[in-house]
Fold this sequence. Notes:
The protein is of the alpha+beta class and 161 residues long. The chain contains four helices and ten strands. It has two domains: 3-64, no CATH class; 75-159, Alpha-Beta Plaits (2-Layer Sandwich), CATH 3.30.70. The strands form two sheets. A five-stranded antiparallel beta sheet has the order 1-2-3-4-5. It has a five-stranded antiparallel beta sheet with strand order 6-7-10-8-9, covered by helices on one side. Strand 4 (35-40) and strand 5 form a beta hairpin. It is elongated, with a radius of gyration of 21 Å.
Amino acid sequence: xxxxxxxxxxxxxxxxxxxxxxxxxxxxxxxxxxxxxxxxxxxxxxxxxxxxxxxxxxxxxxxxxxxxxxxxxxxxxxxxxxxxxxxxxxxxxxxxxxxxxxxxxxxxxxxxxxxxxxxxxxxxxxxxxxxxxxxxxxxxxxxxxxxxxxxxxxxxxxxxx
Length: 161
């Protein structure tokens, strides 16, 4: 499954990946800002192509990188090309007994760790940007954002009290 990168003068950059099954995926980042994606399934005679604008390519990249997260299983780190020093991690956690019954403000999560809770899922109800008085229940799925070291501090100081 090696990834190959080829600079194509006047056209852009081509990235090519061959899967374990022998399918070939090729992504062309064109000089005009668009992205072309070619797929050539194993034993197929001709490739299929899709042309994406930058926003569509970012959306597809988000999906492929796993940003559609499952509680307590996923983590995504984002780096921003325009801000080379900025790296943000997003992680999901399941609330256990130590944090159940406590509110975000009383736990002082941001003050102690630097982490911000940006969402909570409880059953069929989602709360985006929960307020400081939001009370956790055991089994809540939370989405936390911060730098990697801040998330580690959150895990050690808040998740395993």
